[in-house]
Amino acid sequence: VKVKIPFGTKYLDAIFSVPEKKPTYGVILTHGAGGDMNFPHLVSLAAYLASRGVLCLRFTCKGLNVAYRTKAFKAAVEYLKLSEDYKLSGVFLAGRSMGSRAAASVVGQLSQDDDDGFIQGLVCLSYPLHRPKLQSKLRDEDLLLIRCPVLFVSGSADEMCGKQLLEGVVSKMKAPKKIHWIDKANHGMAVKGRTIDDVMEEINAQVFSWLRENVQLEHK
């Protein structure tokens, strides 16, 4: 279902992947610095989750500024929260690369405010912890503010997320957290000798089983 999400004077293009049965929980997904909501990883994850009873809302926001992307993500959260069509008990925010930074920023800000518990958790796919080859400057400030459960899915060979560095940041986080490493995957989740569909199947299954651990989802 295609929708337009009001965002200031503009609108964000978005698509709902709707399960057959009335969903209780949803996931809001967005893309990285390049691409849009039709990025294959997002399409694959949305279809996988919807087929297992989780509503998925993915949206496009082209801004390359994280603060702007964070505002867009907040607009998407507000939109889903007030939606008459889907009355959800809660949502998980999810993003790929820069989209996961925006998602983390929203969750971090809402953890500071008196949150009403609508946001259940955060899924970071290929979280860009640092720029390539610039490991001294970590983008971890939002992560350290978060209190809700967080799942990281990262490639062990991600040039923007050193394995030991992420493990170090995660050890400092107060939130319940889990990292799933995709062996030998780079930032784009490409692995020599594996098809992208095969890698996506691993990622999708991990995300779904983690969601299920955190909320009562009936397994279809």
Automatic annotation (TrEMBL):
InterPro entries: AB_hydrolase_fold (IPR029058), KANL3/Tex30_Abhydrolase (IPR046879), NSL3/Tex30 (IPR026555). Coiled coil: none annotated. Residues 27-208 form the KANL3/Tex30 alpha/beta hydrolase-like domain. It comes from the Eukaryota. Gene3D superfamilies: alpha/beta hydrolase. This is TEX30 protein. It comes from Mystacornis crossleyi. The lineage of its organism: Eukaryota, Metazoa, Chordata, Craniata, Vertebrata.
